[in-house]
# Entry
Amino acid sequence: MSFHVSLILPTYNERENIIPLILEIHQCLSAWTHEIIVVDDQSPDGTCQLVADTGFPFVRLLLREGERSLAKAIRHGIDH
# Structure
């Protein structure tokens, strides 16, 4: 599958916001083939599991371990 737009969404404790945000981004990007790369820094509120449970085909979920960092989460998304 080829993507024309990749959006990196770093997360930490975003359980309450993540699904509406993903759906809004997906709608905004609907004119293009796209993927949303969610990079979670081991959120203790279950953000990662919630995203995994949706099974959205346009979402790629990456779980980062180690030091939490916005910049490193973004870099991790770029690398993958």
